[in-house]
């Protein structure tokens, strides 16, 4: 099965070397690509910032002007969000480590820096995911709440009895960051299934 010209170009924006992308962009522009569909796919798959940035650098002028401006606005928004997430994740890691709680950053923020070390803003994340030592999970919960993070799940006070069962059934607590309301997920394990 072959890809549509729009999806093929979008995949090239992520996977192809610069020379290959330049060639494919020129071919797409000359073949009457549906730029509206390209834009829809780029936004749907969360790669508009990357596609716009790479095409602007490697094949300047190939994108219609309004689409190029739209993708650039997304790039600026994603850059600001990536910087905010990185700063908050670093601050939380420092705070948790200072309290003797072992932690690592997971998923979006960490993966963005691994996949695109020179341009982590290309991979947008909707939240900040932190994994802490399961034995220190409740200490981490107290530390976050003491720092002004509002726990949104589970709500209310944790039960005195049954906390072990709650932590067996749940792998993550959700918090809203003070001031920004950004979602922070504190994980006691990487998967919901405790036996995985």
Describe this entry's structure for a reader.
The protein is of the alpha+beta class. The protein is built from eight helices and five strands. Strands 1-2-5-4-3 form a five-stranded mixed β-sheet. Helix 4 packs across helix 5. The longest helix is centred in the middle third of the chain and has 34 residues.
Largest sheet: 5 strands, mixed
Structural class: alpha+beta
Roughly what fraction of the amino acids lie in strands? 5-15%
End-to-end separation in angstroms reads: 35 Å
Proportion of residues in helical segments: 40-55%
Based on the model shown, name its key terms.
5-stranded mixed sheet, 12% strand, alpha+beta, 54% helix
Question: Secondary-structure map with pairings?
Answer:
Layout: H1 5-15, H2 18-30, H3 35-44, H4 48-58, H5 65-98, E1 103-106, H6 107-115, E2 128-132, H7 137-146, E3 150-153, H8 163-169, E4 172-176, E5 183-187
Parallel strand pairs: 2-5
Antiparallel strand pairs: 1-2, 3-4, 4-5
In short:
With 196 residues, the chain is an alpha+beta fold. Helix content is 54%, strand content 12%. The protein is elongated.
């Amino acid at each position: 099965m072959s890809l549509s010209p729009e999806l093929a170009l979008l995949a090239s924006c992520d996977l192809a070397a610069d020379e290959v992308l330049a060639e494919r962009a020129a071919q797409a522009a000359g073949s009457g690509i549906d730029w509206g569909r390209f834009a829809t796919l780029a936004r749907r798959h969360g790669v508009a910032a990357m596609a716009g940035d790479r095409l602007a650098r490697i094949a300047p002028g190939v994108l219609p002007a309004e689409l190029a401006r739209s993708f650039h606005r997304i790039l600026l928004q994603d850059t600001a969000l990536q910087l905010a997430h990185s700063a908050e994740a670093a601050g939380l890691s420092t705070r948790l480590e200072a309290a003797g709680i072992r932690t690592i950053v997971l998923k979006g923020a960490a993966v963005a820096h691994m996949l695109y070390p020179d341009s982590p803003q290309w991979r947008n994340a909707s939240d900040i995911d932190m994994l802490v030592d399961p034995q220190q999970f409740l200490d981490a919960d107290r530390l976050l709440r003491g720092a002004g993070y509002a726990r949104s799940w589970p709500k209310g006070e944790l039960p005195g009895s049954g906390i072990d069962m709650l932590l067996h059934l749940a792998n993550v607590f959700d918090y809203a960051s003070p001031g920004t309301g950004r979602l922070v997920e504190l994980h006691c394990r990487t998967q919901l299934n405790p036996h995985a």
